Amino acid sequence: MAEPKQERATRTRALILRAAAEVFDESGYSGASISKIMNRAGVTQGGMYFHFKSKKRLALAVMSSQQTFIDFPSEGAGLQRVIDLTFHLAHELQTNPLIRASIRLAVEQGEFGVRDDTAYQDWVALVETYLLEARQRGELLPEVDEHDFAVVLVSAFTGSQLFSSVASARADLPSRIVLLWRYLLPGLTPPRTRASLRVEPADRTPAT
Amino acid sequence: MAEPKQERATRTRALILRAAAEVFDESGYSGASISKIMNRAGVTQGGMYFHFKSKKRLALAVMSSQQTFIDFPSEGAGLQRVIDLTFHLAHELQTNPLIRASIRLAVEQGEFGVRDDTAYQDWVALVETYLLEARQRGELLPEVDEHDFAVVLVSAFTGSQLFSSVASARADLPSRIVLLWRYLLPGLTPPRTRASLRVEPADRTPAT
């Protein structure tokens, strides 16, 4: 039975986005080309132009799809969930070319004439949701503004991953995130909550 | 009297660096060209190639000259000096195309195939010096490591200016720096010191 048209279009779009992210990750924006991406995705010129009219639009779409490239850990709650998110994202940046490309494009967007903070705002919104949960659990200091702190955290994480990427190709990113939390937690949470938090990467040793 | 050769070479190199920074600021790395930079600097092809053999080397030199593009405020001491530095740098990013280009190249260096953290390390070293002074003045909490905090601050500042540049072309950068300090100071300094610090841009109203 033939695949319904709408479904096929959605699948093709996702294929193209993945291929584009891989090519941008390998070659950067200026080194990537529409034809390279078409070949990687295995789509025709018609299929490509139906979804994306230019390399710039492709880059914008990859840039704005950051959260769709990741599986989020479902366990944890409140502040622990925010901390786990930062370590999870650090691990994804080390191992997942799609999220790496997406974040790289967001950082280097000036180079292709774009100024769009959607990617940053999406992370701020996600962190803010987790922080509102932390607030309800009584984990935040009274003077903390959830939105403001989310902006500070997303900024600090962005700079940390950038510095780490030039210093060590992100090998030292987890230890930089440990440091970040060491200096952010005292202004965020009371000492008794702080003592109960796990500020380290989740154990990824596969069960034997 | 003719200018001594050595002096002229130094002056030409500085001229070229300024012109390159201006052109990179306006056009980004891929939009800039050696000939455009030569014209702007008013140097011959021979003069250019004596100092810089390629656009990439020029970009590296601009990227590593960040601190030479700024006049640093000389007043202030210890922790206040660190805070003042961040607001001063925010103001420079808003108004000085040389530092803007230099930082932009450091951020977008992946786009031209470079991985060099000198620019970041220079800022870490400067902040660490100020923090060691703050330590001697008794302004830091005992558990603070001056180098670690300098890394965190440089990272957080980098991410803040990047987020601000896409959100508001850096118009809101000073208020983001205020937020950053709000959440960093509790982990850095005791309450009595915190109360004595001025966490806002210096007054730039010209005397009348």
TrEMBL record, chains A, B:
Q: Which GO terms describe its molecular function?
A: DNA-binding transcription factor activity; transcription cis-regulatory region binding
Keywords, sorted A to Z:
DNA-binding, Receptor, Transcription, Transcription regulation
Domain of life where this protein originates: Bacteria
User: What are the DNA-binding region positions?
Assistant: 33-52
**Pfam families, per the entry:** TetR_C_45, TetR_N
Q: Where is the HTH tetR-type domain?
A: 10-70
PROSITE patterns registered for this protein in UniProt: HTH_TETR_1, HTH_TETR_2
Enumerate the InterPro entries for this protein.
Answer: ArpA-like, CprB_TetR_C, DNA-bd_HTH_TetR-type_CS, Homeodomain-like_sf, HTH-type_TetR-like_transc_reg, HTH_TetR, Tet_transcr_reg_TetR-rel_C_sf
Record PANTHER family = HTH-TYPE TRANSCRIPTIONAL REGULATOR BETI, HTH-TYPE TRANSCRIPTIONAL REGULATOR RUTR
Know the name of this protein?
Butyrolactone receptor
